[in-house]
From TrEMBL:
Pfam families: GerE (PF00196), Response_reg (PF00072). InterPro entries: CheY-like_superfamily (IPR011006), NreC/VraR/RcsB-like_REC (IPR058245), Sig_transdc_resp-reg_C-effctor (IPR016032), Sig_transdc_resp-reg_receiver (IPR001789), Tscrpt_reg_LuxR_C (IPR000792), WalR-like (IPR039420). The modification 4-aspartylphosphate is found at D54. Residues 152-217 form the HTH luxR-type domain. This is Response regulator. Keywords: DNA-binding, Phosphoprotein, Transcription, Transcription regulation. SUPFAM superfamilies: C-terminal effector domain of the bipartite response regulators, CheY-like. CDD domains: LuxR_C_like, REC_NarL-like. Residues 3-122 form the Response regulatory domain.
Amino acid sequence: MIRVLVADDQPLVRAGVAALLAAEDDIEVVATASDGLQALESATSLQPDVACLDVRMPGLSGIEVARALAGRGEDEPTIPVLILTTFDIDEYVFEALEAGASGFLLKDAEPEEIVRAVRNVAAGNGTLDQAVTRRVLREFSRRRALQRVSTATEAADHLTPREREILELLAQGMSNDEIAEALTVEVSTVKSHLVRILTKLGVRSRLQAVVWAYQNKVVTPLD
C-alpha cells in the first residue's frame, strides 16, 4: 500500500486529489494539509511514501517542505516529493528540482497521470509532466542550477560505459523497469547503478541527474 500525504491550500484541489488517490486499491491517503507547516509536521510524524505538495502554500512553501523532506539525516529517511503546480513554467519548479523533489505534474493533468505519477515516485522512478519536461531541461541548460563537484568532462569520465548508458536512457524518460528491459538486466542492477551515478555526479535525485546530463551535454539536448 502506498501511503500518501496531500497538501494544497485550495480546498477543492486538495479534496479532489485526495479523493482521486484514495479511490485506488493500492493507495492510502494518510493525511491532508492546507499549508506548508502542517504538511511538514504531518510528513514528519506519519512518514508517508509520497508527499504531494502544492508549490505555493502559506507558512512554508512546497519548495521549503521539499527541501526539508529531501535533506533529512540517516535516522530520518528521505520522503519522496511530487510537486503539483498550475504553471507549466514557474520559477518555483526549478527551485523544487534543486531542493530534491522527485517529480512534477500539472494540476490539470489527466487523473490517470496523477495516479501514475504517485506510483512512479513511490517506486523511486521520478516523473516530469510531458508539458514541462523540454522547457524545464532547456531552462536548466542555461543555468548553473546544480552544485558541481567536478567539470562536466571529469564527471563524465568518472562514469563507466554502463552508467553512461543508463544515464542516457534515464534522460529519455525511462523508468527503472524499462531501463532493465532495454539492457536485459535485473531492476536491482539498474538501481545499484543509479545510486553510483547520483553519488558520482553529486546530485540527489534521478531528475537532477537528467538535468545534469542535459546541462553538461552528456546527452543530446532536447529540441
